[in-house]
Amino acid sequence: MNSTRPATSAMLFRSSRRLLGAGALMLAGATLAVGASAAPVTSKDKSFMTKAAEAGHAEIAASKVALEKSSNPAVKDFAQKMIDQHTTVNDELKQLASSKDVTLPTEPSMAQRAKITVLEKLKGNTFDKRYASMIGVSAHEDAVKLFQKSSSSADDADVKSFAAKTLPGLKEHLQMGRDLKQKVDAAKK
């Protein structure tokens, strides 16, 4: 019986080594997988995502004010489209940022909030003109520039793709804003 004991010990030793080796390989693979999925984005790409989120929040907030304050059906229609479409884009941006381990702001920038505060104090055709100019045209001109730049120069392929995919809709919003501005500018005071 003693002759089987050394053979059994040798077999256990070899099995233990195999298990330890397999465990080490699994741990190394898991470490590589975690590192690959959470690759950090550059500060330039993070800045784009932050500015895009703030811009989206600003357009939504200002458009909610327009729904409350304006009596112009064209302004209300534009505002509702901005709320709906920018909410969708913001949701897509949140998913992208989450996959890149980036925390986005949940409201407009301080400067954008100040502009919205100015809008809240206006009424009538004055409000409609300022909303069309500030949100319909100016904010969308800025957004188009921001997304154009990132669609061609973002470092992260997913960020670049998001910017490129979103850009045509922003260009359409800009044209809608310009059309709205013409309508409200032509309206009597």
Describe the structure using short key phrases.
single chain; 189 residues; mainly alpha
Please provide a written account of the structure.
The structure is a single chain. This protein has six helices and no strands. The protein has 189 residues and is mostly helical. Helix 2 runs antiparallel to helix 3. The radius of gyration is 27 Å and the shape is elongated. Mean pLDDT is 87; it is low at 30-36.
The number of strands is 0
- General shape: elongated
β-strand percent reads under 5%
Query: Low-confidence spans: pLDDT under 50, at least 5 residues?
Result: 30-36
Order of helices and strands: HHHHHH
User: Which value, in Å, is the CA radius of gyration?
Assistant: 27 Å
- What is the share of helical residues? over 70%
Mean model confidence by pLDDT: 87
Main sheet: strands, sense, barrel: none
Distance between the termini: 109 Å
Topology of this protein?
Layout: H1 4-37, H2 43-69, H3 73-99, H4 110-120, H5 124-153, H6 157-186
Helix pairs in contact: 2-3, 2-4, 2-5, 3-6, 5-6
Short description:
This protein is mostly helical.
